[in-house]
Design brief:
The protein has about 280 residues and is α/β, with parallel strands linked by helices. It has one domain: Metal-dependent hydrolases (TIM Barrel, Alpha-Beta Barrel). About 40% of the residues lie in helices and about 15% in strands. It is built from ten helices and eight strands. Strands 1-2-3-4-5-6-7-8 form an eight-stranded parallel β-sheet.
Length: about 280
């Protein structure tokens, strides 16, 4: 999209390459490269200054590849990691969160598609939530259908920022879940990623977005490209930007990619407004 400021942020992308160790129960393992260099150059080609790397589900809680990327491009990237259910206490203790914050991590993702819903009221999650909130981190949840009804009490009580992934993956056969997501998005600590229309449908995504705007969530909507569109690789970055602009309008999209994203991530506008140079070859 022409005219985006250099401080604009894409809040959702993944990087990986063949040969990384996948978890045993992975639903999908890509067989192609989506490297740090490729992503940074895609951002530059589309006039987007900064990005957020989200740990791919198939890599589980081994965040080493993502963390190496953050260290390689600290001015351009922030990250969202995954922790194992058994590792919440250790991986999200105050000391560890402080260290990861310094590296550029700003959140933790729960991908609950096809998974059991964790009890976020357990002491380990309560302590983790407190540590995360202290550093301004968010808990990002990908869920669908009836899962949102079960998650709603914990989301309402979460002590810090919480992000609903991919517009909540709205499905017309679960109207009560759609209403639950809309109600949750009205809460001041809940944000929504406008991303992945192909993971529900353009119609459902558009309807959800319009309802969220109507209910006053404009300040807590952020854009995510979902690059490289796993399982939907026929899409291109500029197509997704065009979809978002058509949905939101130019002013709202700019807001989603600047002030909204900066507030979510605690990542203020850079003083140097030049776009980053193309990435050097080689990656994490």
């Amino acid at each position: 999209m022409p005219g985006l400021p250099a401080s604009s942020i894409d809040t959702h992308a993944h990087i990986f390459e063949p040969g990384l160790t996948a978890v045993a129960d992975a639903r999908y393992v890509p067989d192609y490269d989506a490297t740090l260099d490729q992503y940074l150059n895609v951002l530059r080609a589309n006039g987007v200054g900064r990005g957020v790397l989200v740990q791919p589900s198939f890599l589980g809680s081994d965040n080493s590849y993502l963390l190496a990327a953050l260290e390689a491009a600290p001015d351009r990237l922030r990250g969202v990691i995954v922790v194992s259910p058994d590792g919440v206490g250790a991986e999200l203790c105050e000391e560890r969160v402080g260290y990861l914050h310094g590296v550029g991590v700003r959140g933790v993702r729960l991908n609950l598609i096809g998974q059991a819903i964790p009890d976020l009221f357990l002491p380990a999650w309560h302590a983790a939530g407190a540590s995360m909130a202290k550093h301004g981190w968010h808990l990002e949840i990908q869920a669908s259908g009836q899962q949102w009804l079960h998650l709603a009490p914990a989301i309402r009580a979460w002590p810090g920022k919480l992000v609903i992934d991919h517009l909540g993956l709205p499905q017309p056969e679960y109207p009560e879940a759609i209403r639950a997501v809309q109600d949750l998005a009205a809460l001041e600590h809940v944000w929504v990623k406008v991303s992945g229309p192909y993971r529900s449908s353009r119609q459902q995504a558009g309807s959800m977005f319009a309802e969220l705007l109507e209910r006053g969530s404009a300040d807590r909507l952020v854009f995510g490209s979902d690059w490289p569109f796993t399982r939907h690789e026929d899409y291109t970055y500029d197509e997704i930007l065009a979809w978002a602009q058509g949905l939101a309008g130019e002013d709202q999209l700019r807001r989603m990619m600047t002030t909204n994203a900066q507030a979510l991530l605690g990542w203020p506008e850079a003083s140097d407004d030049r776009l980053p140079e193309p990435a050097l070859q080689g990656g994490p």
